[in-house]
Design goal:
- The complex is a heterodimer.
- Helices cover 70% and strands 0% of the residues of chain A.
- By secondary structure, chain A is mainly α.
- In chain A, helix 3 packs across helix 4, helix 4 packs across helix 7 and helix 8 crosses helix 9.
- Helices cover 64% and strands 2% of the residues of chain B.
- Chain B is built from eight helices and two strands.
- In chain B, strands 1-2 form a two-stranded antiparallel sheet.
- In chain B, a hairpin with a 2-residue loop joins strand 1 and strand 2.
- The longest helix of chain B has 31 residues.
- Chain B is globular and about 60 Å long.
- The two termini of chain B are 19 Å apart.
- The chains are: A mainly alpha, B mainly alpha.
């Protein structure tokens, strides 16, 4: 039950893009076509889940026992950069098909603040999912990371669909490009506000 | 480019928010009020100036292949310094800005300036570039914060001049996207290029 609440909360209520503003740059950058948006969402999903598990273990079994919590930011970003690099090499070797699909998006993910954001959130913030606020355990953290990434994918693909239609319309000159995109996101975010209060 | 030009280019010509569209996450997330926007801008400027200075110093000796990881470690170091200083001296500001202070590490403005400017210019010029871009970023964030605070709670820098609750949506997520979108339209219409 608690896992279900985590999933609904992370995908709809606290959508990482539309409510928490993490990972906006790639969201605006690669969302002009639906196919690239799905590719990017897939890659983000993969890396966020993996990075959260690794940084969670690193934090709880190395940094906390040694009282080195102030190194979280530095060590996490290094772990994420190394991980992305490794995922790229491994995928190339064992699954060229998936590598072809995700390949070009992987290097971009290191600087996607959603990855570092989720990794830092699960180790620093107490969360309440239908119960008292507590630090997440490994299982909850993994589910939270995966669901957050799904929410990222959902918002990204919905927005890409809207943007493909937007491209065919006659938009006033000053609104062309990003401004109209931002106003569209604003209306999407308003729609997602409707989910608040469910969890 | 003249020394003065380095400082003023961030305001309009190379404005990091409205022209280059970099560092969108803190721009949208922390501008719920004018004060928050200003604080976030200053925090980013601190990291930007110091990382620009150090990167311009080490750039000649860092091999080309590993430069990005090296830059990221330098930036992360200054972000940690900033985190510890803020926790010590302004804990309530640190609490409000929350996650977005450590996330300065992945703010594309900082790494962008390192790549585009600091690694091929002198220390003095890089410091000025950091100040200029930092000021431009701070200014944009403060402007967005002022607009959202007026519409959302009827006040500016906490000074309330419109009675009532204001339009709550402008303090929440949709307002952030909308205000930035419309400010960008105004910027395109009246200030850009010419």
């Amino acid at each position: 039950m608690e896992y279900l609440l985590i999933i609904i909360s992370a995908i709809f209520v606290n959508n990482i893009l539309l409510a928490q503003f993490l990972g906006i740059c790639p969201f605006l950058g690669v969302s002009s076509k639906l196919s690239t948006a799905t590719g990017m969402s897939g890659a983000v999903c993969f890396v966020i889940t993996l990075a959260t598990v690794v940084t969670y273990l690193l934090n709880n079994y190395l940094l906390v026992p040694l009282h080195l919590e102030f190194l979280q930011t530095i060590s996490f970003i290094l772990v994420i950069a190394a991980l992305v690099q490794m995922v790229e090499i491994v995928l190339k070797k064992i699954s060229p098909g998936l590598y072809q699909a995700l390949g070009i998006f992987l290097p971009l993910i290191t600087t996607n603040c959603a990855v570092l954001g989720v990794a830092l959130t699960v180790v620093t913030k107490e969360m309440a999912f239908g119960g008292p606020a507590h630090m997440m355990n490994l299982g909850e953290a993994t589910v939270y990371a995966f669901a957050t990434a799904l929410g990222y994918g959902l918002a990204m693909c919905l927005f890409a669909g809207l943007r493909e239609h937007l491209a065919m319309n006659d938009v006033p000159k000053a609104f062309r490009g990003l401004p109209i995109a931002l106003i569209t996101v604003s209306i999407m975010a308003m729609a997602f506000l409707g989910f608040s209060g469910i969890v | 480019m003249s020394k003065l030009g380095l400082i003023t280019k961030g305001f309009v010509k190379d404005n990091p928010t409205f022209v280059l569209v970099l560092g969108m996450c803190p721009t949208l997330a922390t501008t719920t009020s004018a004060m928050n926007g200003l604080e976030m801008g200053l925090a980013t400027m601190f990291v930007l100036i110091l990382s620009n200075i150090v990167i311009s110093l080490v750039a000649p000796v860092v091999p080309d292949k590993v430069r990005i990881p090296v830059y990221i470690v330098i930036i992360a170091t200054f972000v940690t310094v900033l985190q510890l200083c803020m926790q010590a001296f302004v804990p309530d500001v640190y609490e409000t800005l929350g996650l977005f202070i450590p996330l300065i590490v992945v703010n594309c403005i900082v790494l962008g300036r390192a790549e585009a400017f600091a690694n091929k210019n002198s220390v003095g010029d890089s410091a000025l570039d950091g100040i200029g871009v930092g000021l431009g970023f701070t200014m944009s964030l403060t402007v967005i914060g002022i607009v959202r605070e007026i519409l959302g709670s009827g006040s500016v820098f906490g000074w309330k001049f419109i009675p009532g609750d204001g339009i709550l949506a402008f303090v929440m997520a949709p307002g952030a996207f909308m205000v930035l979108g419309y400010l960008m339209v105004l910027f395109n219409k009246y200030l850009a290029k010419k």
